[in-house]
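Minutes, project check-in

Agenda point 3 was the complex the collaborators sent over. CS summarized: two entities, 765 residues total, and the question is how they sit relative to each other. Sequences were read into the notes so everyone works from the same version.
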Amino acid sequence: MHRTAIKESPAKDHVNDDKPRSLKMVSDSGDVVYRTVARTGGIIVLVIMTAIGVFLGFRASQALGEAGLSFFWTQAWEPDANNFGIAAVLIGTFIIALVAVTIALPLSLGTALYISEYAPRGLKQSLITLVDLMAAIPSVVFGLWGFFSLQGNIIDIAKWISRTFGWIPIFAVDGFSDDPLSSDTVFTASSFIAGIVVALMITPIMTSIMREVFSQAPVGEREGALGLGATMWGMIRSVVLPFGKGGIIGGTMLGLGRALGETIAVYMIISPVFSIQPHILQSGASSISSLIALKYGEATTFGMSALMAAGLALFFVTLVVNFGASAIVARSRSGASS
Amino acid sequence: MTTVVNVTTPDEGSRDSPRRIGALRISDVLSLAGAVVASISMTSIIYVYLAPVGGVVGYFATAYVLFLVAYALLVSFDENMTTVRDRMVLVAVHSLAATVFVTLVFVVVFALIRGAEALPHLNFFTQDMSLAGPLDPLSDGGIIHAITGTLIQISIALAITIPLGLTTAIFLNEIPGAFTRFVRTIVEAMTALPSIVSGLFIYATAILMFGLNKSGLAAALAISVMMLPIMIRAADVVLRLVPSTLKEASLGLGANNWNTMWRVTLPTARSGLVTAIILATARGIGETSPVLLTSGFTAAFNADPLHGPMVSLPLAIFQFVKSPEPTMIARGFGTAAVLMIIVVSLFLVARAIGGQTVAKKVKARERREQWKRDVHDIFQAISASVAKTDGRMRNSLSSASRRKALLRIRQQLTYIRSRFRSKGNKR
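CS then shared the predicted structure for the full assembly.
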């Protein structure tokens, strides 16, 4: 009865109009304040984050103006003699990061596959927690381990690689002879050792992203593969890996971004050189962040400006790598992780 | 085939137990054991006569390669190539995972073991380094200045990042639009901001521009810049997991957005948000490079974040191990052990809070209420008995009877206590 009454009401025309009724939100004053505060929070964060680039650029402009384009291909760091550039340190940063990623990729791929596919059900959650915990280990602790423990043990491996594969230019070491009494110092403080330490630092983050993506591989397709008679590896190769491709690439790039910016552990291990050093096993390496940590103490105003320019370059490089990484992870079939 | 099985053993079929799958055969175990023995023997021979690599790491590397070869060979004797490949991957995945876990655990244990030398000295936790030189033994000097510095800096950083980070996370979730997407992209890209760049940024602004000295405050600001994106992103993920039905129910009942957030979304996500905060804290506590540029270094105690340099734990480690003196290096490892203990315990607290489910929470609340009821009962019993004896005492003023009354009170208290304890044990 009520319904008919409503239908016969003057609103009948509106019902037949087939237009959605316009909904008007009336925010009360509490909501207005709440939205304003939330929006302000977002704006403040955005301002801080953009200010990083702006202020670094502003401080760096003095040195960049002085050095001009030669900043990008000078292999020295003597800002007060107006002879400085990031060619050597930028390439050094990439060398260390590439060594790190080359080592960390198989390690994290294996660990992620183990946790998502092979680990016993009861162990899984503890292993995930352990990986997350490892991502929180301070880099200075890794540096301690690399300098006091790893360096002494890895030299034999470095020697063997150099002896066996020395004909490949990057593995060559100047001043190395097969004399067993020769000193080991040509092999210490190298990009290789720094790369191993950084590899262990980025393995947890890479592992957790890859595991996340692997665990989202559809159960139906997994069971279909196994039901058709695939072995475990066959199933992984035909279902899990194709599904997680985006996660593998994205996770690796995020790891690369972390590796590029790593400071303290690298600084503690390498002995800095300011020329391009492509022999990864040989003593002497460089990276932008360790350059800043090394030089900020003695820097003049102009020297500080030069260091800001180096920091700005590092900032842009990591930004590009990270944007690429998150875009790839987001576009992969799973998407939800990262 | 299966019907035959069912017919011949009807009892087993009706017992309804699942059939065992993935059974381990004796040949699998034998080939694995054989490959291990073969690789160890071959490596030992190679090490004695040929020695391509030296050292412990070299031994394990050689043994591992030989093990792979031997195992592949042994499996190929009675399996086809597909199975051999499967086994190879199985072994590779297990050994890669084992390498990662063993090495990472070793990194932590290494710091703890080497730090054990300095930790037993109590002065390590009560003194600073202002009066202790590099040559002084471990019984002089300590890291109280670094512990205080870390606590002050992380407190300031949390005072900045918790309100700002949570507000931004709420903004990202509640106010959709193109601007929100832009902010989210920026924040995500900033999660991997090199920590030294956040130090440089604070150096460029706070110190060079606003004339702040190198101090605890500047260090705290640098740590905040580094922690902020981590916290926002973790909190954003947690808030996104709150079921929208809950929010819609709240809005449908007439609550406004603010009340929905404050009374529904935030309480639902509380444990996750606490986890996000603690994880960001763990990251912030361990960062060296932002602090390196902004806090300055001092060996003396300084609890004033506004004036004078202030050292934190990671920076103290870094400075200690720069020295060639063994005692200073021991101090560095001791500090690292303290830092690791703090980080790990923060992490475990975060896991304990983050692992809470609604069912667990309900159980905990029931337990708490039962406890309250027990305490209430006991107090009732005590006050009743006291009132009783009080009345009696007023009547009989002789000291003998008073003593008797006191004795009775004591007996009753003992009885109550024992009852209380047995209840506590049952839980």
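Noted in discussion: Chain B has 18 helices and no strands.
Follow-up: revisit at the next meeting once the mutant set is ready.
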